[in-house]
Amino acid sequence: QVQLVESGGGLVQPGGSLRLxxxxxxxxxxxxxxxxxxxxxxxERELVAVISTxxxxxxxxxxxxxxxxxxxxxxxxxxxxxxxxxxxxxxAVYYCHAQLRSLPEYNYWGQGTQVTVSS
Length: 119
Prior knowledge:
The protein has strands at residues 3-7, 10-12, 18-25, 32-39, 46-51, 58-60, 68-73, 78-83, 92-100, 107-109, 113-117. By secondary structure, the protein is mostly beta strands.
């Protein structure tokens, strides 16, 4: 059974930091590109960051570049999103996503974790 379980969300003040975790199980983690998406109220889901399974390269949305860092631990089958210098506009539900590089139709979503940036 495929599972992506996010954790680490919460309420933080502007300028603060959070680290999200996504624990994966039920599939070959090392074969999948891993991503974080987010969806704010009334907005479409958007890609935040992705890390390649092939060579570990990362890409970020322009709005988070320099503030967020995605990483993965292939021993723990976990992907992380370190979020620094958080802004109110980062408030959203954050979702973990896994996509098989060779067959993109094989992809999975986590249930999401709420991040709220507010004073």
